[in-house]
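Notebook B, p. 112. Complex prediction, attempt 2.
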Amino acid sequence: MTQFAAMSREELAACKAQLEKDYAAFKAKNLSLNMARGKPSTEQLNLSTPLLSILSDPAECIAEDGTDCRNYGVVDGLPEAKRLMAAMLDDDPDNVVVGGNSSLTMMHDALAWCIDYGTGGCEPWLTLDTVKWLCPCPGYDRHFRITETFGMELIPVPQTEDGPDMDVVERLAANDASVKGIWCVPKYANPTGCTYSDETVRRLASMPCAASDFRIFWDNAYSIHHLFDEASQQDHLLDIGVACKEAGNPQRYFKFASTSKVTLPGAGIAAFAASPANVAEFKKHLGVTTVGPDKLNQLRHVRFLKDAEGLAAHMRKHAAILRPKFALVEQKLSDGLRDVGGCAWSNPRGGYFVSFDAPNGCATRIVELARQAGVVMTGAGATWPYGRDPHDSNIRIAPTLPPLEELGEALDVFVCCVKLAYAEKLLG
Amino acid sequence: MTQFAAMSREELAACKAQLEKDYAAFKAKNLSLNMARGKPSTEQLNLSTPLLSILSDPAECIAEDGTDCRNYGVVDGLPEAKRLMAAMLDDDPDNVVVGGNSSLTMMHDALAWCIDYGTGGCEPWLTLDTVKWLCPCPGYDRHFRITETFGMELIPVPQTEDGPDMDVVERLAANDASVKGIWCVPKYANPTGCTYSDETVRRLASMPCAASDFRIFWDNAYSIHHLFDEASQQDHLLDIGVACKEAGNPQRYFKFASTSKVTLPGAGIAAFAASPANVAEFKKHLGVTTVGPDKLNQLRHVRFLKDAEGLAAHMRKHAAILRPKFALVEQKLSDGLRDVGGCAWSNPRGGYFVSFDAPNGCATRIVELARQAGVVMTGAGATWPYGRDPHDSNIRIAPTLPPLEELGEALDVFVCCVKLAYAEKLLG
């Protein structure tokens, strides 16, 4: 098949006419499919059924240090929960704070505290005229929305296969003291699936920053979310904490993780890790806002997942469910679009997303076409700050929620929409 | 017995010598007792044991609208959880947001949003040079600490038997636009146990405020926490929402409640209620900070407590455990201090505390004496803003946690410490 861009107008018009027929046929099916959000499927949720009733007797509610987890207190989390989450965060349990069900809330709060009270002895960011924040793009819309809501100026940074373009990051961080930090999803990134190279991590840790309180918000949401069981097929991430310490910038990073996509997204546990000084700061602020997290849910997780090996074993069960879905995305996109040209997409080894780059100017139209045919996608532009993709190109595909058969159908619709939008664009 | 203040120096010195012997005897026992924090006892926690395993199967995790509570979403809480918490909050479910395990966090966040973004279309409070906050005293230390941490100027307002001294509140609110709000624990208040009179509620709702965005933070933490089962022995509180609406100030109040002292303090659910406009504002901000609360825990509470009648029946079981403890406090204080003079204390019909007013200048010494004899009390001054009781008089007694026998022993020590400190003071 000739690539669309190489076709004559007549060829392309004929092709478009056929696509319109195909599209009309999809529409006639009155589909209701969803590839919008990175939600685990029911099958995945069922893996954690034992978690529900793992504590059923008061005697089971006592933590290893004798704390009755039903009562008030323990603002920074149970010792055994710190150990469990330290395994996810690749850190020392002493440097970990375990919280409630949302790592996003911990990120929001950590940022709010920098703004209201300052961090590392520096002035509160609310006293500054401008605070700028680096946003590797495409990235995670909820990250961007937090910093946008706080009134920061969001600066897009190109995302490469090795993480953010470090030449750009280094230049911005070195020369502008109002650049206070960066969002990072360093492993199996949302949405590109890339994992930061060791060099990227080391450059982030060691780069000169005009702001001495520059902070890396290291949302390691997919740290153990491999699609393959063999170590050789898994990505490896250098620990930002170690890299920062080695570089003489031990206060530079805040790490976050949660079990949202390990156990149950509505009822997981979240954690924060940082240097001892930053943890002390975090705990001081946290102690004002709460008497303590839900320790019973922390204990449930410890009893269910146990340790690093327990986590890995559990994640292999997720991988077995997710592998065919990601394989199907790759197959459908490859079969449907290889010969069309103009498109690119990721084929990640972990995480929750496939990042799709449509021909420039087509993303909004594709998502709209899909919507009208009953397939909900993440909004075009969502992967960029302020929801504005300058190329109108990137679309995030979330293949985890639908059953395999529905996913295949949704992808067929999607491929048809991509081709139709591209043909429309070329024909002007 | 002659009251201490009426004794001759000789009589008092002899009395003090005996008290010192009694105190030394208590010390020799090497006690380790705690009347510091308002925690439910183990016996109370056990009332909620069915809650632990009430959801054990995936099919039980589905909310009435079909939502799988194990997955992401539903930022403002389940419909059935709103109904349950509306019963506690004396409000319409539509005006309720159900959150995580901490109403304190919801109060903190609501305040933070007023500061960062403003409320009711008014300017953000962070743009103001000074924000003042009214603090009925004695009051709740964690409330005061939130507003103190935000850098507000805390203004103590005398607490009467009918709630805050409304002459003072009205004068401050009417004449100073930097007075932005007030902390209220309107029923079985922490620590005095008073319940606001209908007149107090109506005056709060209707008083002229120089600040159009004046907000009443209505922490109805003990709304259903009666000590007695008969309606005639229970306090009744006028609803602040109705009163504000009637007064033409429908935006003035934010209500809060939680099940922390209904089910399990570490693993309860919290809720917020306000006008539709304020709820819309709250939800908008909340949607930035989280993907949603722990809906499984909400569902557990609905299945366990069911409705208003279920709540009331459950609270009667708490009351049966707590009644003898509060009776013992009243008896021990009355027997031990009636004839000493100079002291006053509350005898509440609900809630978690007895408020004790020692002779001026004695509270710090009493708490220190008790501590040295192995009885931990809430720190003197804790019931005042900045931890500074100008009279050094108020002590909060929390009788709920210790078993009855330990409580009796702790009160014996306390009474001895009160008398000794008072005698020391009078002897100069």
